[in-house]
Amino acid sequence: MTKYTVKVEQDPDTGDLILPIPDELLAEMGWSEGDELEWEETLMCEEDGEYPGYTLRKKEVNDESRT
């Protein structure tokens, strides 16, 4: 598994926070710039134990009906 570390950036005009996703990861996930992603808190379970974490997934068109 490849791990990526990035720094959250702030748009100087809007103040919005931006999470820059490496091009390699975008390609691997089948994501494109402009795709809407969902950020979810989750519990990560690994050999060392459990800890809080986050997952990102592409929001699909049919996800609107689930909210």
Write the layout of secondary structure elements.
Blueprint lengths: L8 E2 L6 E2 L4 H7 L7 E10 L2 E10 L9
Antiparallel strand pairs: 1-2, 3-4
Descriptive report:
With 67 residues, the chain is mainly beta. The protein has one domain. Helix content is 10%, strand content 36%. The chain has one helix and four strands. It has one helix spanning 23-29; strands at 9-10, 17-18, 37-46, 49-58. A hairpin with a 2-residue loop joins strand 3 (37-46) and strand 4 (49-58). The model has no long low-confidence stretch (mean pLDDT 87).
Provide a compact summary of the structure.
The chain is mainly β. Helices cover 10% and strands 36% of the residues. It has one domain.
Strand content: 35-45%
Report the helical percentage: 10-25%
Q: Give unreliable regions as ranges.
A: none
Name the helix and strand elements from N-terminus to C-terminus, one letter apiece.
EEHEE
Mean pLDDT reading: 87
Instruction: Give the N-to-C terminal Cα separation.
Output: 31 Å
**Alpha-beta classification:** mainly beta
Molecular shape = globular
Main sheet strand line-up? 1-2
What's the oligomerization state? single chain
